[in-house]
Amino acid sequence: MAVFDPKVATRPPPRKVKVVIRKYNPETGKAWWQEHEIETYRGMTVLDALLKIKEEQDHTLTLRYSCRMAVCGSCGMTINGTPRLACQTQLAQVASNHNPVVRVEPMYNFKVVKDLLTDFTEFFEKHRKVKPYLIREDIEEQENPKLEYRLTPEEYEEFYQYSLCIACGLCVSACPIFASDTRFLGPQALAQAYRFVIDPRDEGYKVRLELVDSLDGVFGCHFAASCSAVCPKEVDPAAAIQRLRSLLLKYRLKLFRKKINGPVEPLREVKEKVPLPGDAQTLDGVDLEALENQPVVIPVEILSK
Amino acid sequence: MGKSVRDLVKYLDLRPGWRAFIDPFILKLWNNPERVAFHMHRITGVITAFFIFIHIITTNVPARAGWEAYLEEVRNLEAITPTSVLFYLAMGAVLFHGINGVRLILVEALAWGIGRPEKPKPPYIAPSLRGRQRALIHVTFALWIILWLALGYVMFLT
Q1: Which pLDDT score, from 0 to 100, does residue A295 have?
Q2: Do B115 and B44 fall within a single domain?
């Protein structure tokens, strides 16, 4: 995340903060900057400040928010020129006693619906385009599974980081390529494509690799790495895109062999005698062979007392 | 015409990202020299394209005016003249574009130096921003400045 310093974040914010909001009215098509002054408290986030303004000063202020704890990814906005989640940003991080001004704008590279509310239709269309789900050749097995697919912890760690994406859109708003070419798939969709391409349970990697093999796909990216710098969940889309591109090169040179895991084998019932260690000794008066032949009886009446 | 311009302004207003394209420093991002390198690569690329265009015209001089004129032109580059200063600036752009291009081939085509995927932990700095490619960026900038200064020394002071 863009410069998160716990020492700064836990400081009390300035007592009074001027919040400057970029408002937009879709009916008249007018956009303007609106200033509000609010009293703060320790631990106040930018989202708290905006909700306080909405409650006390300007009821028409429009923004999207939900969980208030950086899980849902709804409240992405440009705060003092940096794309951030409003709920995750402390006022103390962005306002100081020297400069108690917080400028809040809608996220860049998105259509603005009203005020701070942005339109995610295109974003999710692109996300849908890369088929962000497991594709199997045996659809019957996938629809009516009897057992889970095999996945080792090492294989899981390869894509775990990319599966943390909350689709907040901050990476897309920071992307300099997306600013000039809106057909570009964007860091979020490409990172998700990579996440499913290297998933050993997935068999649809060829479809996805063909899909991202264009100037609007992986070859549009030029590694400005701003997506990774602003990601609130450390998903690292920049690295995912570079890996996807090198993987695509290997695929085109026919050097890429993907390991695909099927369902795990059903557990077998093993009836084996576990041998005792050589130096093991039984207690006095205990006959092991007699004990083995004796059925196990659990005294239920004692347990129920 | 007026209506279409108004529509364009409205479109740009609805897509604030265009402002980020026109003004690269509208976004304030820390810990991200890759973005600086990206913008410089774009700018130096444009300068290099113009330089190549002018270079073709200037190297065409012997065909148009003979070798004497060409030698005269090359001799002009030694002293500090507007042409030589422009040439020096263009050389800086070409140098940066070339050195950064090598870095980009390593990072973009071979996925070199971008770290391994990991389980996120505080302070949540992505592996690609901590990997060896970051050191390579510093090397790129250092090499560029050293070579450019060396070129200036060779051009103007020897």
Answers
A1: 81
A2: yes
SS3 A238: helix
Query: What residues does A45 pair with on adjacent strands?
Result: A90
The answer, yes or no, to whether residue A298 has pLDDT greater than 90, is: no
At A201 the pLDDT is 94
Give the domain CATH number at A154.
1.10.1060.10
A98 and A136 share one domain: no
The answer to whether B29 contacts A230, with C-beta atoms less than 8 Å apart, is yes
Query: Considering the domain boundaries, does residue A215 fall inside one?
Result: yes
Mean pLDDT (whole number) for A140-145: 90
User: Rounded CA gap, B151 and A264, in Å?
Assistant: 64
Contact of B82 with chain A, judged by CB distance below 8 Å, is answered with no
Based on the fold, state whether residues B14 and B37 are members of the same structural domain. no
Q: Report whether A212 contacts A244 (CB < 8 A).
A: yes
Do residue B69 and residue B23 come from a single domain?
A: no
Tens digit of each residue's pLDDT (9 = 90 or more) over B35-59:
999 999 999 999 999 999 988 988 8
Taking alpha carbons only, the member of A103, A237, A244, A89 closest to residue A177 is A237
**Residue B13 lies in domain:** 1-30
Beta bridge partners of A78: A83, A105
Residue A113 has pLDDT above 80, yes or no: yes
- Count of the separate structural domains present in chain B: 2
Residues B62 and B112 in one domain: yes
A121 in the Ramachandran plot: left (φ > 0), alpha (ψ -120 to 50) or beta? Answer: alpha
Using N-to-C axis directions, what is the helix angle for A187-197 and A237-252, rounded to 10°? 50
The answer to whether residue A216 is domain-embedded is: yes
pLDDT of B74-95, one tens digit each?
777 778 888 889 999 999 999 9
Task: Please say if the pLDDT value at position A151 is more than 80.
Answer: yes
Report the pLDDT value the prediction gives residue A290, as an integer from 0 to 100. 85
Given CB atoms, is B39 within the 8 Å cutoff of chain A? yes
Residue with tokens 């859109």: A169
- Nearest by CB to residue B29, choosing from A4, A82, A160, is A82
**Does the pLDDT value for residue A1 go beyond 90?**
no
- Put simply, the answer to whether B124 touches A4 (Cβ < 8 Å) is yes
Chain A nearest CA to B5, separation (Å): 14
Residues B23 and B71 in one domain: no
Supply the ipTM of this predicted assembly.
Answer: 0.86
Q: Do A154 and A196 belong together in one domain?
A: yes
3-state secondary structure of B47: helix
A133 to A77, A151, A228, A245, B22: CA distances (angstroms): 28, 16, 23, 20, 37
Number of domains forming the structure of chain A: 2
Per-residue pLDDT tens digits for A171-224: 999 998 988 888 899 999 999 999 999 999 999 999 999 999 999 999 999 999
